[in-house]
Amino acid sequence: xxxxxxxxxxxxxxxxxxxxxxxxxxxxxxxxTNTFYLEQDLAVVYKKPTPVTIVKVDYxxxxxxxxxxxxxxxxxxxxxxxxxxxxxxxxxxxxxxxxTSFPLSSxxxxxxxxxxxxxxxxAIAFVIIRFTHLDETYFVDAQEMIDYIETSSRQSIPYTWFxxxxxxIAYNYVKPVDYLSIIDEYYF
Amino acid sequence: xxxxxxxxxxxxxxxxxxxxxxxxxxxxxxxxTNTFYLEQDLAVVYKKPTPVTIVKVDYxxxxxxxxxxxxxxxxxxxxxxxxxxxxxxxxxxxxxxxxTSFPLSSxxxxxxxxxxxxxxxxAIAFVIIRFTHLDETYFVDAQEMIDYIETSSRQSIPYTWFxxxxxxIAYNYVKPVDYLSIIDEYYF
Lengths: 188, 188
Hints:
The structure is a homodimer. By secondary structure, chain A is an alpha+beta fold. The first copy, chain A, has a single domain, classed as Trna Endonuclease, Chain: A, domain 1. Helices cover about 35% and strands about 30% of the residues of chain A. Chain A contains 6 helices and 10 strands; from the N terminus they run ααββββββαββαβαβα. Chain A is globular. Chain A starts with 8 loop residues before the first helix and ends with a helix. The interface between A and B is large, with 53 and 53 residues.
């Protein structure tokens, strides 16, 4: 969905995720899934644009405005939200390169606060975590993850916890991260 | 909520709206209102970040990554969404400098399509329009505006239409665009 002229994409992705660009694969899979949902009129879910602070913009004559100085901002919310079967959906998606545990430092504290808030107002809120080396993608209810974080002193969640508390999302060619199938099963 | 170091804000705003920066006033009022709602735990509503295509990023040592080439992208959705009383909210906000009518060219066709889609899935969807010279801000149900657009051949909506079909939002110092009061009255 996002166009990077100049072929700079992989550089940008690599530096942003620090994982050799792998951070973008889950995002691409989710974009494809959300586009499928949209085209089939099943749900309306979008990834929010990356928040940037724009400092300088050039307005060359006869061509598009060019941003020449901008900085990444820390997001105050999760990356994805939308609507499905009259319900507000809200989630964050993360790739994890470890095979044994998911480091909690990957999710910002204000994102956890955001998930708590939307839960209070009636959202279906969750986190999608992909263990890249195991090629497994889990759907985790946000409340369950928050309960874990608030009762444990660990700085990470063991992989085995996802096996018991998460729902493995089966890979599907047209909808690579079919999270609505999990929502249908557990929330309706 | 958005910080523009360098004091470039007014230049950017003016050029972006083409209305001497006035386009940002409604946005600021809505940011203030949404922050108030958030702090009072009434609703969780955010403006989506401005979508930009990032082409070039510099990573200077010991300082933040600097975007040196990026372009504005056309948004595919509305600017605001969130949750209130278990319902998904979705809306667009526009300033209008004319005293007599609101030009339909201000709202992109794909934004109208987006509003139609979320309505089908059960959203509370609306448009907030401020007539800047009259200092009046109207709440308009998205379905009503879509019905007008699809049955009229006009390229604009007359101001008088807003007086009869819209709801005037009373100014409030702590919540300058108190759209939840309208939602409470007409949607619950």
